[in-house]
Specification:
This protein has helices at residues 14-25, 29-32, 34-41, 44-71, 78-85, 88-121, 129-132, 145-162, 166-194, 199-203, 217-234, 250-279, 282-290, 296-330, 333-341, 360-376, 379-407, 422-441, 443-454, 457-464. It is globular. α3 packs across α13 (282-290) and α6 packs across α14 (296-330). By secondary structure, it is an all-alpha fold. The longest helix is centred in the middle third of the chain and has 35 residues, at 296-330. It has a single domain (14-466), classed as Amino acid/polyamine transporter I (Up-down Bundle), CATH 1.20.1740.10. Helix content is 71%, strand content 0%.
C-alpha cells in the first residue's frame, strides 16, 4: 500500500513571515557581542558605527536576496534560487553546507547559550569527573554534561513541536518575539531613565584607545574584527526564504517581510547597544568580555538593578534564545525537502506528514545532526566556519541578481532591488573581501569551512549517478 503523502500549504501571513525574520536573527548576539566589539575598537562611537555598518551591509544583502526571492518564491530558499541561476551542483553545495554546518551549527550554538544561561540561574548537574574527562579523538562528549543534556533536550523538544505543524511553531516564535521586544524595551527604558548613565560614558573612549585615521590599517583591521562579531548577531535573515512555499502571496510578501524584519532588527540593535554604552563606561564593558562567563547585558543591568535585575535579564536571554532556536529549527528542513524531491538528498527527507503538512523526516535528520554537534563541543570554531561559508553563498545570491537581469530581462519581478546596480555590487564586493581576509587572518577556520562544504561532493556523485544531465536542470524552478 502506498504511503499517504501530505503537501506544504500556504498558511503564513506577511506579519507572521516578518516575525520569523526577526525571531531568526535576534538571539544571543544582541546581549553578548557589544563586549568583544568594544575590546576591538575601544571607542563607544566606533562600536555603534560598527553595528550600523553591519546592519546596512546585511540590509544590502537582504534587499538583493529579496529580488531573487520574489522571482522564485518557493520552499527551499537559496537551493531553489541557485538551481535556476547556477545549476544543480551549486544548489546542492549550498544545501549540503546548510545541513553540514551553517544551520545545524547555528541550532547547536544558540541552544547551548540557552542551556548556559539556565545554568547561571539554576546550576545544572555534572557527571563524575572521570566520565566528563573521557576523550574520543579531540572531543570530550560528556564534558559539562548537564548543560549539554539540556541543550540536546531543547533541540529534540523544539524539533518535536515543529513536526506538529507550522502554525504552532510559528505561533511560538510570534509569542516569544513579542516577549523579546518587551524585554529589550525594558532594558532600554530602565537603562536610559534609571541606569545612572551619562552621555559622557558614550563620548569617553577606553584608556587604551589610540585615535587613528580611517585609512589606518590598524583601525580597518579592528573594525573588520568588530564587524565579524556583529554579523553573528545579524545572521539568519535569509532563512524566511526557506518557507516561501508556505507564505501567502509570497512574491509580494516575502520581499516585504525581509525588508521590514531587517529594519526592525537594525533599529533594535542600535538602540539597545546605545543603552549599554550610555550606562557603562566602555572599559567596564571590555572587562565583561575578559570575564569568562560574563555577558555584557547582564553586567549592564546588574550595574543599576543588582542581582534581581541580573536574574531578570538572564530570563530574557533564555526566552530570546528559545525563540531563535525554534525559528532556526523551523525553516532549514524545507531546503532538505526540496533537495530530496530532486533526488539530491536522503530520499526520506522528501516525505511530508499527511496530517501536519511538515517535512518530519528532514526535521529529525537536522535535529540528530545538531545534537551530534553539541556533543562535539566545538561551538566557537563551528560558528566561525558557518559565517565564512554563509557569506560565500550570500555573495553568490546577490551576484545572481546580475545574472538573472541579463539572462531573463523580461521575467516578472514583483520587487526590484533598490539602488541597482550599486547595492548588490557593494554587497558582492564586501562578501569577496570578507572571504579573502578570513583566509588570510583565520586560515584554519576557512579551510575547515571549505572542507565541510566539499564533504558533500561524494554524496552528490552518488545521488546523481543515475541522473542524466539535462539542459533544463539550470532553468527549472
Amino acid at each position: 500500500m502506498e504511503k499517504q503523502q501530505g503537501q506544504l500549504i500556504r498558511s503564513l501571513s506577511l506579519g507572521a513571515a516578518t516575525i520569523l525574520v526577526v525571531s531568526s536573527v535576534i538571539g544571543s548576539g544582541v546581549y553578548k557581542k557589544v563586549a568583544p566589539m568594544s575590546a576591538e575598537l575601544l571607542s563607544p562611537d566606533l562600536v555603534l558605527w560598527a553595528w550600523v555598518l553591519a546592519g546596512v551591509i546585511s540590509l544590502c544583502g537582504a534587499l538583493s536576496n529579496a529580488e531573487i526571492a520574489g522571482m522564485m518564491a518557493d520552499s527551499g530558499g537559496e537551493y531553489v534560487y541557485f538551481r535556476r541561476i547556477y545549476g544543480r551542483f551549486m544548489a546542492f553545495l549550498w544545501g549540503w553546507s546548510t545541513f553540514a554546518v551553517i544551520k545545524t551549527a547555528a541550532v547547536s550554538s544558540i541552544a547551548y547559550v540557552f542551556a548556559h544561561s539556565l545554568n547561571a540561574i539554576i546550576p545544572l548537574p555534572h557527571l563524575p569527573e572521570s566520565v566528563e574527562n573521557f576523550q574520543f579523538l579531540v572531543f570530550k562528549p560528556f564534558e559539562n554534561a548537564g548543560v549539554k543534556a539540556v541543550t540536546i533536550g531543547l533541540i529534540l523538544l523544539l524539533t518535536l513541536l515543529n513536526t506538529r505543524g507550522l502554525k504552532g511553531a510559528a505561533a511560538l516564535s510570534t509569542w516569544i518575539t513579542r516577549l523579546v521586544i518587551v524585554g529589550l524595551s525594558l532594558i532600554v527604558l530602565s537603562g536610559l531613565f534609571f541606569g545612572g548613565g551619562s552621555i559622557a560614558n558614550f563620548q569617553t573612549p577606553s584608556v587604551n584607545f589610540v585615535a587613528r585615521d580611517w585609512t589606518d590599517f590598524a583601525l580597518i583591521k579592528a573594525m573588520f574584527a568588530a564587524l565579524l562579531a556583529a554579523f553573528w548577531a545579524y545572521e539568519g535573515w535569509n532563512t524566511v526564504g526557506f518557507i516561501g512555499g508556505e507564505i501567502q502571496n509570497p512574491n509580494r510578501n516575502l520581499p516585504l517581510a525581509l525588508f521590514s524584519g531587517m529594519m526592525i532588527i537594525i533599529g533594535a540593535y542600535v538602540v539597545v547597544n546605545f543603552t549599554y554604552l550610555y550606562v557603562l563606561p566602555i572599559d567596564q564593558i571590555v572587562a565583561a568580555h575578559q570575564g569568562q562567563n560574563e555577558i555584557a547585558a547582564v553586567a549592564v543591568v546588574r550595574h543599576f538593578a543588582g542581582g534581581t535585575g541580573a536574574v531578570l535579564i538572564s530570563i530574557i536571554i533564555l526566552i530570546t534564545t528559545l525563540g531563535c532556536t525554534n525559528a532556526t529549527i523551523l525553516m532549514p528542513p524545507r531546503v532538505y525537502y526540496a533537495m530530496a524531491k530532486d533526488r539530491l538528498f536522503f530520499p526520506k527527507a522528501a516525505n511530508i506528514h499527511p496530517q501536519y503538512h511538515t517535512p518530519n523526516p528532514a526535521l529529525w535528520m537536522q535535529g540528530v545532526w545538531a545534537c551530534t554537534l553539541v556533543l562535539s563541543g566545538s561551538f566557537d570554531q563551528l560558528t566561525d566556519m558557518l559565517i565564512f561559508a554563509a557569506f560565500f553563498f550570500y555573495g553568490a545570491t546577490a551576484f545572481g541578481v546580475f545574472v538573472m537581469r541579463r539572462r531573463e530581462p523580461n521575467a516578472e519581478r514583483p520587487y526590484k532591488v533598490w539602488g541597482y546596480p550599486v547595492v548588490p555590487a557593494l554587497f558582492v564586493l564586501f562578501c569577496a573581501a570578507l572571504i579573502v581576509i578570513t583566509c588570510i587572518n583565520s586560515p584554519r577556520e576557512a579551510l575547515l569551512g571549505i572542507v565541510f562544504m566539499l564533504t558533500g561532493v561524494p554524496f552528490y556523485w552518488y545521488w546523481s549517478r543515475n541522473e542524466r544531465p539535462k539542459r533544463d536542470d539550470v532553468l527549472d524552478a
